[in-house]
Amino acid sequence: MDKTILHIDLDTFYVSVERLNNRYLQNRPLLVGGTSDRGVVAACSYETRGFGVHSGMPMKMAKELCPEAFVIRGNAGEYSKHSDTVTEIIKEHVPLFEKSSIDEFYADLTGMDRFFGSYKYAAELRKRIIKETGLPISFGLSVNKVVSKVATNEAKPNNHLKVDLGYEKSFLAPLSIKKIPMVGDKTYQTLRNLGLRKVHTVQEMPIDVMQRVLGKNGTIIWKRSNGIDNTPVIPFCERKSISTERTFDRDTIDVVKLRGILIAMTENLAYQLRRGEKLTACIAVKIRYSDFNTYSKQLRIPYTSADHILIPKILELFKTLYNRRLLVRLIGIRFSHLVSGNYQINLFEDTEETLNLYNALDTIRKRYGDKSVVRASGMGAKTIGRMQNPFDGRPPVVLAHRKI
């Protein structure tokens, strides 16, 4: 049976949520993201795009291009709430769906034509989401994920598009190669240097030529350009790592401040591990200096989720890594090699008081929030904390800039 894959995208999601909360922002140029000079545009309204503004752009540049735009910092909790509402509607009506990001979904409607009609069903689902949430939404429908995603992007804003079976290549052919998922700026420039501009040119090329130029990625891009994609809709993908990082408004050389932030980060991620019943066996610290040189160092450790083990190891890595004595622009930590399990008690070092303390602290955090109880040394890191359990199967909320 031929697949029928639906791709749903909430148009300019952060912007749409802000406009729901403030009607004054309707039809006005709007930027959502970091408000400082170090900020990055997380989302921008269609009104700003004519000025050359796009997401991922430095906020300072965006404001220069479109000085009349309203700038809003954004609220991760508010976006999560609206995303969850949409998720519940889709969950109620679709037996198999994948939430690939906070504002993007895939659904497998294979076999629906036999009973109702996939296109009609998708259109009615879209109408219901718009009616119940007030959010604009676009969708694409085809035989696979890649073509459906491209169709959604072509349907925007606030519209829908179906690509019939057998017309995948002809639909993709006239489009720019930059519209193929996986073709970023660097890959696009490489392909342009070869004289490739439209998808139909890639379709006419032998697959081995693309492979010689781009390696394994060349094969994937060639297949996607030809409308070939067998990626299944995956309802849940278990995380293999968890991380956090912070970019400073002003570069700093304050080692006490850096250590305090690392302690707060480690304490919070360790709590996330215990909340998700996970253990880590590999930790890493990342530093980016003011000259944009970035360094990282990792360490294998016995499986654990305990603060009193992880914090000294993280600080030890930081001490080894931070040796240039330059101003620091960004720091971050990462726990990987995650497995399911609970903290293994050390018979010779752990005490009953220590274990009871962890249980009490975690109970308070579950009830009152991640930041309700913190170490004094990490109190300066005001934005450390998460809005949700990172192991509940939902994608993370990503705002382009968070300030300390």
Biggest sheet overview: 5 strands, mixed
Euclidean distance between termini CA atoms: 53 Å
Q: What is the mean predicted local confidence, pLDDT?
A: 85
Q: What proportion of the residues form beta strands (DSSP E)?
A: 15-25%
Let me know the number of strands.
13
Rg from alpha-carbon coordinates: 24 Å
Estimated structural class: alpha+beta
| Cα shape | globular
Total DSSP helices: 14
Instruction: Going across the biggest sheet, name each strand in turn.
Output: 5-6-1-7-8
Order of helices and strands: EHEEHHEHEEHEHEHHHHHEHEEHEEH
Residue windows where pLDDT falls under 50 for at least 5 positions: 398-404
Helix content: 25-40%
Question: What does this protein look like?
Answer:
The chain is 39% helix and 20% strand. The strands form three sheets. Strands 5-6-1-7-8 form a five-stranded mixed β-sheet. The model is unreliable at 398-404 (pLDDT under 50). The chain starts with a strand and ends in a 36-residue tail after the last helix. With 404 residues, it is of the alpha+beta class. Strand 10 and strand 11 form a beta hairpin.
Looking at this protein, list some descriptive labels:
single chain, five-stranded antiparallel sheet, alpha+beta, 404 residues, globular, five-stranded mixed sheet, disordered C terminus
In short:
The protein has 404 residues and is an alpha+beta fold. The chain has helices at 13-21, 46-49, 59-65, 76-93, 118-133, 145-155, 168-172, 185-193, 199-204, 207-214, 216-225, 255-275, 307-321, 352-368; strands at residues 5-10, 30-33, 41-44, 70-72, 97-101, 104-108, 137-142, 160-162, 241-252, 278-289, 294-304, 328-336, 339-340. A hairpin with a 7-residue loop joins β2 and β3 (41-44).
